[in-house]
Amino acid sequence: MRPPRPFVRRPRVRENVNEAIRFREVRAVFPDGSNAVMPTPEAIARAKDLGLDLIVIAPTAQPPVAKAMDYGQWQYEEKKKKNEAKKKQHVILVKEVKFRPNTDDHDYEFKKKHAERFLGEGNRVKAVVQFRGREIAHTDLGRRVLERLSKDLAEVGQVEGGIRMEGRMALMILSPVKTEKPKSEKPKADAKPTPPPAAAG
Question: What is the pLDDT of residue 81?
Fold first, then answer.
């Protein structure tokens, strides 16, 4: 029986940087703005002469584009770009608001404000009317609640697919209405100021 092979932790290889670049030739871009297609080892040597690393920035280009720059600085810039992209992304959630067929006006207004806020935040709203016991015989009451809500929120939300029944629930989905920002009106250049009224003599 052979003895187990000792575990050797291999150093992490930086992909597409210096000697890890697998392309035979690249279009090398240097800090002075010059660029040229050359064999990869030659481009790496020129970058190292400048105290920099050669990093592939466009691997799918023909030939691939590599830039001479500081690897640490490049990592920082890439991380910064990813963080900015994350901030711009908005994850759309589905928020649920529940009603009863006999929901009173106070409770209705309270939940309507919640739905309005959710839509204003760019999320979708699932409005549900739950029927219990014998209430299922009066599904029309639940529909009225949802129809009222859709009318009250018409300026901020639009109904997707109408009102439908699922088991002992009547429900509808509201999605935010996209509103265009009003364009600020610029004062006309030839507009003359209104003269003040003449003083009474």
Answer: 86
Which CATH superfamily includes the segment(s) 18-72?
Translation initiation factor 3 (IF-3), N-terminal domain (3.10.20.80)
Per-residue model confidence as pLDDT tens digits over 81-101: 888 887 777 677 889 999 999
**Which of 3.30.110.10, 3.30.565.10, 3.90.25.10, 3.20.20.60 is the CATH number of 94-176?**
3.30.110.10
Average pLDDT over the chain, rounded to whole? 84
* Residues 20, 16, 28, 31, CA torsion sign: negative
**What DSSP assignment string belongs to 147-184?**
HHHHHHTTTTEEEEEEEEEETTEEEEEEEEPP-PPPPP
Structure-block tokens of residue 104:
């009173």
Predicted TM-score (pTM) above 0.70: no
What is the identity of the amino acid at 134?
R
Angle between helices 139-152 and 105-120 (to 10 degrees): 50
Tokens representing 112 are: 């309507």
pLDDT of residue 13: 46
- Residue ranges per structural domain of the chain: 18-72, 94-176
User: What sign results for the dihedral spanned by CA atoms 83, 90, 96, 167?
Assistant: negative
pLDDT tens digit string along 145-184?
Answer: 999 999 999 999 999 989 999 999 999 999 998 765 555 5
Whole-angstrom distance, CA of residue 77 vs CA of residue 57 = 12
